[in-house]
Specification:
This protein is an alpha+beta fold and 738 residues long. The protein contains 29 helices and 19 strands. It folds into 5 domains: 199 residues, Hypothetical protein af1432; 145 residues, Beta Polymerase, domain 2; 121 residues, Roll (Ubiquitin-like (UB roll)), CATH 3.10.20; 170 residues, no CATH class; 76 residues, ACT domain (Alpha-Beta Plaits). 50% of the residues lie in helices and 16% in strands. A hairpin with a 5-residue loop joins strand 4 and strand 5.
């Protein structure tokens, strides 16, 4: 749509009298309330002007007019009229509640940006605005409908703005608002937002393509008229009542096609298409038969979105036929109800209230809105929430089936892990394997439309951080991150409590019970300690100790000082327990036992790869938890020289709970079957190869294999090295040490 015509149309509609003509679907009391909201907004915006020089009130009226086109209720029209009142005019939510009621005030509040708050960056402010708006929208979909109407009118009248502002707003619209409109099935709005954004972001390309489309329009009009006449004649002969519309593709969609398929404008053949609207669902398939008799269909270009609707509820039959002139022409066949949902999406609920309950589009929209609330509960960071949202706004979908034949729509590129989380969080958290069409597949396998997906679970399984590299849905990503954060926090808290308790024992005192809440002496003690450490809660302090952000010995000394002030005295027995097993090089904090089940908070250093039987030491990294090195590790020694107070004694458990990786270097004589010999020797020694690297050197008489093997302990590794050394092709085998 050209800005001049849009601007003229908006100017003509910019009076309340023009708006009342659109409100004839409301009853008299509702119109009276809308008029009151108009007076309130007019008064609030008095003396304010838009960049174009028009009175500001013209904008709220135009937004309300767009909402009236969707037949939204009186509360939504009132909120549309007052949507900038809180932000720009200092009107409070309480004032709106008193005058217009809670529902209208909630709608206005959901639409209000957070510009009044101080944020560290513009991006953070924008992310928080989206987050607030989308959560309000998840509670009440009218929020986003008003917001989309607001954005559409702003885009139509943006010519008066500075070029850099136009580009920023257009980019934001193309990235966020247009995909949201598409996700909710508002295709008409989606297309116009895309077109206007393209016009501002790439004005030269838009102008060139617009000119090319205009120049070819006269010739194409003849073709469109000729095909439409033939199609109408065919349907009259078949006695199927239909409406046939010729339609032209938008300039942005032509540009996208040229980009994706590397075509010139002259090579884009299907610039126009046809829409066939019938009365009943069976007539859709009847109309398809009539069209296929008239023109030859192109194989592989038929899609049935009626049997399997798109993720936003869109339903139509799509078929591409060869016209009499040899060009490809797309036909879309749908009923009037499907056409309403296709153009207005979730807004069609207000336009066509039916007895049959919500349409497929509304159900799908509601599912997506609910997923926003789920993501919000798992994601406290605004930028992360926006990232998850963008991931979820993919327009393309694949349609897969559960073993019970339920259809699920997922973004293109989705994996079995996305599928599992789409079904239920528990299923995703405990997922260990997947089957697609009855065959076992890797969890990172991309799903295709029509796949039947089955998830295999294990009660002991938990999300793997590596899944974040391949999952495609915002829901899966947020659930995995949420689980990993909670797991790390729980483990860090446990380790922090253990370290502080041991450090305090070295002072001859025991850790006081309770927490910072309450009024007893222990609560006051914790409150004083938290003021000193600048932590918000006892849990935060213990997590910081567990992650190495604070040194347990220093915190213990401060806590001992506070305990002494309350009259506590060091106990000789506790002092002995605290100093037991402490060596000369480490602070007296007792010993942490490593058995392999510690999870994210305790890591084995990759420089030296310690295994049970090695002498080990623990380094409390700054924010990365406890890192375990071998006592002879050069990297560890350098860290000790630089940061000796961060080292604590650690030791292996008598029976570790899993196997551990050791790095092994094997020198072999080059020849056939060498790798097989080494692998067989490792297998016979009951060791697994977890990684193998043969380097990029050209083959010579000898070759060097660098392996990582999973072993139980140092003794098992010695047995493995002996077994590999006995292989004929092996010249030398050693454990790699830093």
């Amino acid at each position: 749509m050209l800005l001049t015509s849009a601007g003229a149309a908006d100017a003509a509609a910019a009076s309340f009298a023009a708006l009342t003509h659109k409100l004839d679907y409301l009853d008299e009391p509702d119109i009276k309330r809308v008029r009151e909201a108009y007076r309130f907004a007019d008064e609030a915006h008095l003396g304010q002007f838009r960049a174009s020089g028009e009175p500001y009130i013209t904008h709220p009226i135009a937004v309300a007019g767009l909402c009236a086109d969707w037949k939204l209720d009186a509360q939504a029209i009132m909120a549309a009229l007052m949507h900038d009142a809180m932000e720009d005019c200092g009107v409070t939510k309480i004032e709106l509640i008193e005058r217009f009621g809670v529902p209208t005030a909630e709608l206005v509040d959901g639409l209000t940006k957070l510009d009044k708050l101080q944020f560290s960056t513009r991006e953070e402010s924008q992310a928080e605005s989206f987050r607030k708006m989308l959560l309000a929208m998840a509670r009440d979909v009218r929020v986003i409908l008003i917001k989309l109407a607001d954005r559409l009118h702003n885009m139509r009248t943006m010519a008066a703005m500075a070029a850099h502002k136009r580009a920023r707003i257009a980019g934001e619209t193309l990235e966020i608002y247009a995909p949201i409109a598409h996700r909710l099935g508002l295709n008409q709005t989606y297309r116009e937002l895309q077109e206007l954004s393209f016009q501002y972001l790439q004005p030269w390309r838009y102008t060139a393509l617009d000119k090319a489309v205009r120049n070819s329009r006269g010739y194409r009009r003849d073709i469109v008229d000729r095909i439409r006449m033939e199609v109408e004649k065919g349907f009259v002969a078949a006695k199927v009542p239909v409406q046939v519309f010729g339609r032209e593709k938008t300039i942005y969609s032509i540009y996208r096609k040229m980009q994706e398929k590397h075509l010139s404008f002259a090579q884009v053949s299907d610039i126009f298409g046809f829409r066939v609207v019938v009365q009943t669902l069976p007539e859709c398939y009847l109309a398809l038969g009539v069209l296929h008799q008239l023109f030859k269909p192109i194989p592989g270009r038929f899609k049935d979105y009626i049997a399997i609707p798109k993720a936003n509820g869109y339903q139509s039959l799509h078929t591409t036929l060869v016209s009499p002139l040899g060009t490809a022409v797309e036909f879309q066949i749908r009923t009037e109800a499907m056409h309403a949902v296709a153009e207005k999406g979730i807004a069609a609920h207000w336009m066509y209230k039916t007895q049959d309950g919500p349409s497929e589009g509304q159900k799908q929209g509601a599912v997506w809105l609910q997923s926003l609330i789920d993501i919000q509960q798992d994601t406290r960071d605004s930028a992360e929430f926006l990232e998850h949202l963008k991931i979820d706004l993919f327009p393309d979908s694949v349609y897969v089936f559960t073993p019970q034949s339920k259809i699920l729509a997922l973004p293109r590129g989705a994996t079995p892990v996305d599928f599992a989380y789409a079904i239920h969080t528990e299923l995703g958290d405990h997922c260990v394997a997947a089957k697609v069409n009855g065959e076992p597949v890797a969890l990172r396998t991309e799903l295709r439309s029509g796949d039947v997906v089955e998830i295999v679970t294990a009660p002991s399984s938990r999300p793997n951080p590596a899944w974040l590299n391949f999952v495609r849905t915002g829901r899966a990503r947020s659930k995995i991150r949420h689980y990993l954060k909670n797991m790390e926090a729980d483990e860090s808290l446990e380790l922090g409590e253990k370290l502080l308790s041991q450090a305090l024992r070295a002072e001859g005192l025991t850790l006081p019970g309770g927490d910072e809440t309450g009024t007893d002496s222990n609560a006051q003690l914790w409150q004083a300690l938290l003021r000193w450490s600048s932590n918000r809660s006892q849990s935060d302090l213990l997590i910081d100790i567990g992650l190495g952000r604070k040194i347990a010995g220093i915190v213990a000394k401060r806590l001992a000082q506070l305990l002494t002030e309350t009259g506590a005295k060091p106990d000789a027995l506790t002092l002995t327990m605290g100093r037991y097993a402490a060596d000369d090089n480490a602070p007296s904090q007792g010993t942490v036992v490593i058995d392999g089940s510690e999870g994210a908070t305790v890591q084995l250093a990759t420089c030296c790869r310690p295994i049970p039987g090695d002498d080990i030491v623990g380094y409390l990294g700054r924010g990365e938890g406890l890192v375990v090195h071998t006592a002879e590790c050069g990297v560890g020694r350098r860290l000790f020289e630089r940061d000796s107070e961060r080292w604590i004694p650690v030791e292996w458990a008598e029976e570790p709970s899993r196997s551990f990786e050791a790095a092994v270097q094997v020198l072999v004589s080059n020849g056939k079957g060498v790798l097989a010999q080494v692998a067989q020797a490792l297998s016979e020694a009951e060791a697994d190869i977890t990684h193998i690297d043969m380097g990029d050197e050209r083959p010579t008489e000898t070759a060097e294999l660098r392996l990582r093997v999973a072993v139980r302990d140092r003794q098992h590794l010695a047995d493995v090295l002996r077994a590999v050394k006995r292989a004929n092709a092996v010249l030398k085998v050693t454990r790699v040490k830093p």
